Predict the structure of Nuclear pore complex protein.
Amino acid sequence: MQPVQDSTSAHVKDPKDPTPTPSLSLARQHICAGRVSLAKNLVEMLPRELASIDQPEERVAEYFHYRQFFTIWDSLDRVVECQRLEVSIMNRDTRAAWLSDYKGLIDQAYDAVVKLLTSDWMMPDETGDRRSRELTRVQQIFVPELILRLHVMLYAS
């Protein structure tokens, strides 16, 4: 008779394998379900040392892709927040400072989104396994979302 495994023991990993496979899988599931802030919090709890891990390469790349995505998501939010700070009663110097900040944020967000969309962001492998299907789903949801948010941001500016 085999011992019963609880849900946490299914995620016990080999101590020689420092990649956070269960955490990345959970983050991917949250993103697929549209829960970006939960996925972001989960990825932010992972150690920064993951950047120096060599194996498996696709997991480290996925970790970097999440970091890149959340940075862009935050930069788009900062543009919206900055836009809300505009008031009609600003003196010339205040308006010039606000406009400079606003343009800088727009440029940063635009450059980051274009860089992400022209890279191999979240490219699934050809295995057709669950991870590949989830990465495809992330792309299907968030590539149009990023393009739409970028368009709205540029149109409103």
User: Anything to note?
Assistant: The domain at 19-156 is CATH 1.20.190.50 (Delta-Endotoxin; domain 1). Residues 57-84 form the longest helix (28 residues).
